[in-house]
């Protein structure tokens, strides 16, 4: 007679399954958050639509939508990878969510991977919506989309690093205020809807070194001007990405 061994065997699920489950949770939480949707989708689409259909801004020659679409795509990346992630992670840290997750079998590397996958999935959704609206408004892109993808990946890494740095070092309330302030400042000063050529030359040269300026400039060079690889902008993004991720890894506090 065969005796079945029914004793419990508590074993952690495979890492891939844990990451997938955490990614699903993070994605649902982000998409159900009204403030997150306002930042990630509603504001970018409104900016693209309003400024494309009106003459509120002097954007020079050519269709307004051709100038605005790359900048709005860059703004969408910043809103998800930096602003949304900083605020969400900051409050998770405050309420002890990260501490509790640290007591589960999910390793910290798995949590960071899940958050990264969530950001990428939301960015894909943003890109589909914004590009669809842009085409409806008459957008006519040109160039090599591989360069645009590379710019978005570097921009995502840069903004994610500094978003996690802010969330892991400041109080949640301070993170909320600082992230929204940075969002507004970079929206105005980052070449998203206002051309940097409108600023004094010396000031514009400094603004070009901002990550949002580099990302919007790289996307504009690829999608509007047909440049294959905008080297200067990609180099700026790479420096920000390395610096942000290194600082986040060094100073991020989980509790």
Overview of the structural elements:
- By secondary structure, the chain is mainly α.
- The chain has one domain.
- The chain has helices at 15-32, 34-53, 64-94, 97-102, 108-136, 145-169, 172-189, 201-207, 211-223, 231-251.
- The longest helix has 31 residues, at 64-94.
- It is elongated, with a radius of gyration of 20 Å.
Which SSEs are present, and which pair or pack?
Elements: H1 15-32, H2 34-53, H3 64-94, H4 97-102, H5 108-136, H6 145-169, H7 172-189, H8 201-207, H9 211-223, H10 231-251
Keywords:
255 residues, 74% helix, mainly alpha
- Oligomer state equals single chain
Shape: elongated
- State the domain count: 1
Q: State mean pLDDT (0 to 100 scale).
A: 87
Report the sheet-strand fraction: under 5%
Instruction: Report the radius of gyration as a whole number of Å.
Output: 20 Å
* Beta strand count: 0
Helicity level, as a percent range? over 70%
- In the predicted model, the low-confidence regions spanning at least 5 consecutive residues are none
H/E order of the elements? HHHHHHHHHH
Q: Provide the structure class.
A: mainly alpha
Give the end-to-end Cα distance, rounded to a whole number of Å: 54 Å
Largest beta sheet, briefly?
none
Number of distinct helices: 10
